[in-house]
Every structure is written in structure tokens, then in C-alpha cells.
Amino acid sequence: MPENNLSTKITALAITYNEEENINRYVESLSFADEIIIVDSYSTDATEKLANELNVKFIKNEFIDFSSQRNFAIEQASNDWILFFDLDEIVTPELETEIKKAVENKDGIVAYFVKRKFHFMGKHIRFGGWRTDKAVRVFNKKHCKYTGLVHEVITAKGRVCTLKEKVDHYSYRSFDNYNNKLNLYSKLQAENLYGRKVRPNAYHFLFRPFYRFCWQYFYRLGILDGKEGFILAYIHSFSVFKRYIQLWMKYRKIS
Predict the structure, then answer these.
(1) Where is each Glycosyltransferase 2-like domain found (predicted)?
(2) In this structure, are residues 32 and 2 in contact, taking their beta carbons and an 8 Å threshold?
(3) Does pTM surpass 0.90?
């Protein structure tokens, strides 16, 4: 793997499960990193085979929750500066240039948000809350760690800034694949609520899904994204409903 010719060395990390369709593209877009490490949750497709062919470090680790898996990956990194993009995110050449400048910055910034350009069913989604979507993807591991079971976030001790360039986010592979992701999120959120002793009631089953749909489709103008905006609002509101169904099932010991 070619070196980035910077004084600051970079490690690119990823967590995977059945990502054979994305792994080549991911490695290519992050080939400027000094090392690439993939932590895999025992994929059943060709992810491991392709990773070995691409000559990246591949480690298997049982998945417990997203934060635990990401923090485990960070422990494997040889370098302090980390790029932690998802396999469905593509780093553009413009973003690569900005990242290289950012890690060389010596003004005390320990992490950078990267704005995401979300694509769904072949369409760039501009509304429904996606326009302001961003996540910490570049950070110094000495000052940062992940917290949260589902929508894991970086806790940073130091200055955090936002990069100007966006990463292309292609979360949609197929309807079933996208729905399965939301199923996993709902399950982990239900486990979190169960641990906090939250008991579901009519408010959770009726109002919370309805509010989610209205918030995304009307208040955040998802309606302007056409049928894709409606589908997104619907399946996300239904995932809220499933969260409380799964929580209800846990209290009743139903698997």
C-alpha cells in the first residue's frame, strides 16, 4: 500500500458484515492511508476473501454493539490519526485532499465532522433531515472514543471542527438490505431501553412512529424528495414501531 507522504501517518478502519459488494470500492477510495484495517463480524459472503486479495489487515471479532466493535478496531491501529468511514461511504479526491491537510494541522483540533451526501434508491436525498447529516469520521485516537450502542458517537476531549467537502453515502443496496439495517438498529435500541427499564405503552406504539413520520416527511420537508422521501419516512417510522414491539417482546420473554 502506498504511503501518503505526510509527516502524520493515517490508519483507515472499517467494521464489516457481508460487505463483498462494497469492499473493493472502500479500499480504493482510502488507498492513501498508511494502513487499512477491517474488523469483521464473521461475514458469510466473500468479504474476507476479497480483503485478503486487497492486502489489507483483516480481523474477526464477535459483534456486541457498534461502539464496542469500533473501539476494538481503534485498538488495532498503529497510528494516532484515524479515518473511520463506513463501507457504503466513498471518499472523493477533494475530500482526500482536505483530510490530508486536516491531519497535518497543529492547532489542537482532535476530530473532524464530515458531512454526508445521502443517496437512496438511486437518488440524492436533499430533505427529510439528510441535508444536515454529518458524523465524526476523522479523529485522533488519543483524545476520542465511541459511546452509544446503536447510533454511536465520538466523545472527544478537545476541539472538534467540520470539513467542507462531503462524503458520498450510498446506504441503499436493496430494499431488504436497508430494512435489515433498520431492524438491527431497532433491536439494539430495544435492548438499550430494556436495560434502562423503559416499559412500552400506547404512547410508544402509536404516537412515536406517527411523530417520526411527520417530523421527517413534513417538518423536515421529506415530501420534496418525492416517492423516495415518502418511502424513507415510512420505513424509518415503522422501525420506531418495531423498536417498541421488540422491547415488548423482551418483557414477555418472547424470542
Answers:
(1) 15-117
(2) yes
(3) no
